[in-house]
């Protein structure tokens, strides 16, 4: 294995890590939201339209974190080329491998956090709607604002990943 092989290996591993971790966040987030939707539908079947609408809106925003991870993974696989010095593994190769690993971890862990938080917030909103149907529109608006702000942490992770890949 030469130095560029190590860098290429780190790119592939980091891409898999980014998407794998991101998928955990979205999967658990969707599960939380869907579980609370099912429970709320059991209690208030007449609110099916409002509850499902809220689940899909929250879930779609929850899914965006994984899409950011997919973008970083695609960049690592298809855009970035190993550009270290030819030959044996050197310090430059280790630095490149480390920054790509850092980029994959940053977006992957950022997506886990957002997915869990957004799924939990969506589930709470759905439960609130089942308890107070008259407040459904206010709860939905508040949920959208809250999860949009919570999504900003994944955008920070995305920016850090891009900086690691292209600037550092």
Describe the structure in your own words:
The chain has 168 residues and is mainly alpha-helical. It contains five helices and no strands. The protein has helices at 3-43, 48-79, 91-131, 136-150, 152-166. α1 runs antiparallel to α2, α2 (48-79) runs parallel beside α5 and α3 packs antiparallel against α4. The mean pLDDT is 94.
CATH fold name, please? Answer: Four Helix Bundle (Hemerythrin (Met), subunit A)
Strand tally:
0
**Global outline:** elongated
| Helix proportion | over 70%
Share of residues in strands: under 5%
CATH C-level: Mainly Alpha
Superfamily at the CATH H level? lithium bound rotor ring of v- atpase
Instruction: Identify the CATH architecture.
Output: Up-down Bundle
Q: Assign the structural class, choosing from mainly alpha, mainly beta, alpha/beta, alpha+beta, or little secondary structure.
A: mainly alpha
């Amino acid at each position: 294995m030469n130095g560029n092989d190590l860098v290429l290996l780190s790119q592939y591993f980091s891409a898999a890590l980014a998407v794998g971790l991101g998928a955990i966040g979205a999967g658990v987030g969707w599960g939380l939201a869907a579980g609370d939707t099912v429970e709320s539908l059991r209690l208030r079947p007449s609110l099916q339209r409002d509850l499902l609408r809220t689940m899909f809106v929250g879930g779609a925003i929850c899914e965006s974190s994984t899409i950011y991870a997919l973008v970083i993974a695609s960049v690592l696989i298809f855009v970035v080329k190993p550009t270290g010095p030819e030959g044996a593994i050197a310090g430059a190769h280790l630095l490149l491998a480390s920054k790509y690993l850092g980029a994959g971890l940053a977006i992957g862990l950022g997506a886990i956090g957002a997915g869990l938080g957004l799924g939990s917030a969506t589930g709470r909103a759905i439960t609130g709607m089942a308890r107070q149907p008259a407040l459904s529109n206010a709860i939905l608006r508040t949920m959208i604002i809250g999860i949009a702000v919570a999504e900003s942490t994944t955008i920070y992770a995305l920016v850090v990943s891009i900086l690691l890949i292209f600037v550092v």
